[in-house]
């Protein structure tokens, strides 16, 4: 990785002298017809000059949008995080790739009828996340993040059109970072191949992809004595000198999915059609304990138990739908067949075959889109299915986007889901007792969410609110046993985001207030989360580069946090009260853009350079110390 980075910078220095930047949106107008320039002479050359509008991407059920080469504070929030997402409302573990603790409640549809552990989901691409491209010339993108002690993360995407109606893309993302503490190495990767094809009159259209994920991490279990961490003892400034709870345990989650969705429209792009969607996905979760760690966690356990545990899920889905499409209206309805398997390896029966639950599910699906004008869009989706082991499943997702006036926009959503708890909650087999369970008598989690946001031109502000009600909330107690709350959990979230501008100075702030009722003790969160960012942005070097620099403060009130279980990769009820939060995290940064390359350089958790680090992500898991984080984003339009 080190040598690759040097090569990357070497070629970065050479390429601007060799390749004309055709897509600098700050210098080229976004002309509607961007392809051919002809001066009228008989021997004139035809020159292709695409603009940024000719480089587009979309998901299967969204419209095309151009590559984002803008240089904004929102890009800074995203590309200083290893998962390329603004993580407001979360707090990261000490090593990149090790996940986060969520500081607010949110709807997680990807975990419905799925094995996906809560802390492994941050780099997982669902079918709805897959991008499909349309580019006039071959395009390559790089996103790089530096590691903690050593290593780093790199995502590379290459895409190319083959003719005007076929695009193929390949993407690889790899992360390897050695953490500050013993036994804290993280290794994440994914490989993605995607394609989009359509005939000239769009009577046939297909989306396909194959994606493979591997998320592996050494699990150190937190530090054994937090007092040693908080004392100003020079022996422990090197965090590897701190004793950790686990010294030889690792977890591994792998997922593979092959997906095809194709639509036949006998009467052209607008009218009746038939859509067929089919996919197969396999997920595996493994936990490997060292003998010493096993004795530490289960001193009274009997010998003969397997120290490597495994559980897995298989999902085959086949859907056929009738489709009716118009420019401002579309609808589809169909039947879905689904075969689900959930299995595990019994650690008490070494050599025995895996225990597997299998069921066939039949259900109905439908969707609706209404767009009376360009600034109004209503989308709704509905699915219902039934099975022997996992019961009824009902999901309704609805969203409205509306812009009536130039300076005002409105977004609203209404979601409902009734489903079995996560597969990770239903079964587990481990040598750490009493962490074994196989739940057959459960109730559906029933979740209702509604809310919305209003965007205002005044101070570039946004006001937002959400309300949740969850019945039969699934959680784990302090003994790693699955439970469901008898009281409903209710959550009210109110927040705002605004930016004040004065010449080249800007102040961006984001606030979130939360009020929990009912079963709030099983899902504790802070009552307030805030972020303030004062920055300066200007052109430099005769407008050859753009600079952005500032100071960001992130704060959340203290709360009685749940504990993180490395055995489940989930948060569980605390063994005793332990409060985290109440101390600000201060970062300073200097960012720069040169053409289509952007650099994000950030000094994280500055206060630990002159005072002791007393911040925690979760009980026994200290927040990261000061480090210089480097992020690079580079789009190459050939």
TrEMBL record:
Signal peptide: 1-22
Pfam families named among the record's database cross-references: Porin_10
Domain of life of the source: Bacteria
Keywords (A to Z) from UniProt: Signal
Protein name: Porin
UniProt keyword Signal, yes or no: yes
């Amino acid at each position: 990785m080190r040598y690759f980075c040097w090569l990357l910078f070497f070629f970065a220095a050479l390429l601007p002298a060799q390749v004309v930047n055709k897509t600098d949106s700050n210098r080229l107008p976004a002309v509607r017809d961007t392809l051919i320039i002809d001066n009228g002479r008989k021997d004139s050359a035809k020159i292709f000059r695409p603009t940024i509008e000719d480089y587009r991407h979309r998901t299967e059920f969204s419209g095309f949008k151009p590559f984002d080469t803008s240089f904004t504070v929102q890009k800074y929030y995203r590309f200083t995080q290893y998962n390329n997402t603004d993580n407001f409302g979360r707090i990261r573990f000490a090593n990149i790739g090790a996940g986060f603790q969520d500081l607010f409640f949110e709807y997680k549809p990807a975990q419905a009828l799925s094995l996906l552990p809560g802390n492994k989901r941050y780099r997982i691409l669902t079918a709805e996340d897959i991008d499909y491209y349309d580019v006039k010339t071959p395009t390559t993108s790089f996103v790089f993040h530096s590691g903690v002690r050593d290593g780093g993360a790199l995502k590379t995407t290459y895409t190319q059109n083959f003719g005007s109606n076929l695009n193929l893309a390949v993407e690889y993302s790899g992360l390897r970072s050695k953490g500050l503490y013993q036994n804290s190495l993280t290794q994440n990767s994914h490989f993605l191949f995607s394609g989009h094809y359509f005939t000239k009159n769009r009577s046939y259209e297909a989306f396909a992809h194959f994606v493979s994920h591997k998320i592996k991490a050494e699990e150190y279990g937190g530090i054994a004595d937090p007092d040693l961490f908080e004392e100003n003892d020079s022996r422990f400034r090197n965090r590897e000198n701190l004793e950790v709870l686990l010294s030889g345990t690792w977890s591994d989650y792998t997922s593979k999915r092959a997906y095809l969705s194709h639509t036949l429209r006998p009467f052209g792009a607008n009218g009746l059609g038939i859509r067929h969607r089919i996919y197969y996905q396999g997920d595996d979760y493994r936990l490997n304990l060292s003998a010493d760690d096993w004795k530490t966690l289960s001193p009274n356990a009997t010998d003969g138990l397997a120290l490597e545990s495994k559980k897995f899920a298989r999902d085959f889905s086949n859907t056929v739908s009738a489709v009716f499409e118009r420019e401002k209206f579309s609808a589809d309805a169909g039947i879905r067949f689904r075969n689900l398997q959930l299995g595990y390896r019994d650690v008490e029966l070494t050599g025995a075959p895996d225990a597997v639950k299998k069921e066939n599910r039949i259900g109905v699906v439908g969707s609706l889109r209404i767009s009376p004008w360009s600034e109004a869009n209503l989308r709704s989706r509905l699915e219902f299915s039934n099975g022997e082991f996992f019961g009824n499943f009902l999901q309704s997702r609805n969203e409205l986007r509306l812009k009536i006036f130039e300076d005002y926009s409105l977004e609203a959503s209404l979601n409902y889901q009734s489903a079995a708890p996560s597969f990770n909650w239903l079964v587990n087999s481990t040598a750490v007792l009493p962490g074994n369970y196989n739940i057959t008598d459960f109730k559906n989690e029933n979740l209702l969410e509604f809310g919305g946001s209003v965007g205002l031109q005044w101070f570039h502000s946004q006001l937002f609110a959400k309300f949740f009600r969850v019945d039969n909330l699934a959680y784990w107690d302090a003994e790693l046993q699955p439970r469901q709350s008898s009281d409903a959990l209710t959550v009210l979230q109110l927040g705002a985001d605004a930016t004040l501008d004065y010449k080249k100075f800007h102040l961006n702030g984001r606030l979130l207030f939360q009020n929990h009722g009912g079963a709030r003790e099983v899902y504790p969160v802070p009552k307030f989360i805030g972020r303030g960012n004062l920055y300066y942005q200007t052109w430099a070097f005769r407008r050859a580069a753009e600079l952005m620099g500032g100071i960001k403060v992130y704060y959340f009130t203290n709360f009685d946090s749940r504990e993180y279980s490395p055995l489940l990769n989930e948060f569980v009820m605390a063994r005793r009260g332990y409060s985290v939060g109440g101390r600000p995290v201060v970062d300073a940064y200097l960012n720069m853009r040169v053409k289509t390359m952007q650099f994000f350089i950030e000094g994280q958790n500055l206060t630990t350079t002159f005072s002791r680090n007393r911040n925690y992500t979760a009980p026994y898991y200290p927040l990261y110390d000061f480090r210089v984080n480097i992020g690079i984003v580079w789009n190459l339009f050939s």
